[in-house]
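Whiteboard transcription, Tuesday session. T.W. wrote the structure tokens on the left side:
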């Protein structure tokens, strides 16, 4: 293997890993939980974003001449969706006279500086990524970020009775993403344990990481990480069933047990974070959605006002600000009309289908699918596609990886069939 190939593998793997835990680790290393100085977070986030963009561009350069091969339909739809979304955003922010946004620089930075370069770099380099090494780096990054948070954030170590609000990771790491970091720690630990051949010491370490991850997730007091964890585990159980009926049965039993023991579970969480318990109780028993139901209704009404082309990519206020609907499907219908909404549903359906296939076949790298399911849940409750780099990268990887796996499977079956025919001919002779 040449030095260029080794460098390509290293940078491609690093580029992939940074999408998972790079921002979280960088901000946890260098930023406090709070500060009075305006813009202090930018002294860390801007250099980190520049570094991550540089890595993506280097990966693109190293793999520029490599052919991706036949791009699967879902990947094409995803790129077409992005192209239409960029036109929509440009029209809303630069052409419409009834809309004024004070600062679109951050939005365009996410589109052209964070999401799209990462997507394209992974599309060009997905075959060069060392997935075993990526798992190790991501897991270590998650663990290190959580440990740093314990030292940097006094609120995490406060007595439960003193917890009165949601807890953020640091100045630039909000409570939702902080909670999802804990969810990722649990999921990756469970995956590593499920692979077997783990020494007793490593098992103890993985269990310790799961406990720390659960603690972080609960103290963050955001509900979508809890929902994501439940969905991931149920999806995992369903996909690992020997057939659909068994998968549905196992999932139904697990869901039934969850309902039966919901009170003890809530009480246990209350011992860690009363804020989390209160928010879960309000959501389960009172249907409290933190105002999301209003946003959902407004997004749907906006779609009905312009079902063909869509009305707007986000909600605009009178002060030059904007907000997304906190649901990527409704965002798609609101911004790009019926075709945009159907395209997003198709993208998510293929992503879930491919994830099911990878888990069903016990692919050695199906941990990526578990994190993709987590990101789907996140974006159904708290995200937007133009702000979520990891979601776009995971979609890109899973679409291309599954297309390659299906191609190899077909070639393998063809080769086997040809060998059987050849063996039969030799026998007849």
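and on the right, the sequence the group agreed on:
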């Amino acid at each position: 293997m040449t030095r260029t190939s080794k460098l390509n593998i290293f940078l491609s793997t690093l580029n992939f890993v940074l999408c998972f835990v790079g921002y979280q680790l960088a901000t946890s290393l260098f930023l406090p939980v709070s500060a009075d100085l305006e813009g202090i977070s930018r002294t860390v986030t801007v250099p980190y974003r520049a570094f991550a963009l540089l890595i993506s561009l280097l990966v693109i350069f190293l793999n520029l001449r490599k052919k991706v091969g036949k791009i699967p339909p879902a990947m094409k739809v995803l790129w077409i969706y992005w192209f239409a979304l960029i036109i929509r955003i440009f029209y809303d922010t630069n052409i419409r006279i009834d809309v004024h946004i004070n600062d679109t620089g951050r939005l365009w930075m996410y589109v052209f500086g964070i999401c799209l370069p990462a997507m394209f770099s992974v599309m060009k380099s997905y075959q060069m990524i060392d997935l075993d090494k990526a798992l190790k780096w991501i897991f270590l990054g998650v663990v290190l970020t959580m440990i740093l948070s314990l030292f940097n954030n006094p609120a995490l170590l406060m007595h439960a009775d003193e917890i009165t609000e949601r807890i953020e990771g640091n100045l630039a790491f909000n409570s939702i993403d902080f909670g999802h970091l804990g969810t990722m720690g649990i999921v990756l630990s469970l995956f590593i344990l499920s692979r077997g051949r783990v020494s007793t010491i490593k098992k103890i370490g993985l269990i310790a990481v799961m406990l720390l991850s659960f603690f972080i997730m609960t103290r963050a007091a955001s509900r979508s990480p809890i929902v994501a964890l439940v969905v991931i585990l149920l999806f995992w159980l369903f996909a690992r069933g020997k057939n659909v009926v068994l998968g549905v049965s196992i999932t139904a039993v697990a869901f039934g047990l969850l309902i039966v023991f919901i009170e003890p579970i809530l009480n246990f969480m209350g011992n860690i974070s009363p804020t989390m318990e209160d928010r879960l109780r309000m959501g389960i028993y009172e249907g409290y959605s933190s105002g999301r139901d209003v946003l959902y209704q407004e997004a749907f009404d906006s779609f009905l006002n312009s079902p063909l082309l869509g009305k707007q990519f986000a909600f605009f206020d009178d002060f030059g600000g904007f907000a997304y609907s906190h649901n990527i499907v409704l965002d798609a219908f609101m911004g790009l009309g019926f075709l945009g909404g159907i395209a997003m549903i198709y993208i998510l359906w293929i992503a879930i289908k491919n994830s099911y296939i990878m888990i069903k076949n016990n692919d050695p790298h199906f941990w990526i699918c578990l994190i993709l399911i987590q990101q789907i849940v996140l974006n159904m409750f708290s995200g937007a596609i133009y702000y979520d780099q990891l979601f776009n990268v995971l979609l890109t990887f899973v679409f291309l990886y599954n297309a390659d796996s299906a191609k190899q499977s077909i070639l393998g079956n063809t080769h086997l069939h040809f060998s059987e025919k050849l063996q039969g001919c030799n026998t007849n002779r």
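Someone added at the bottom: The longest helix spans residues 389-428.
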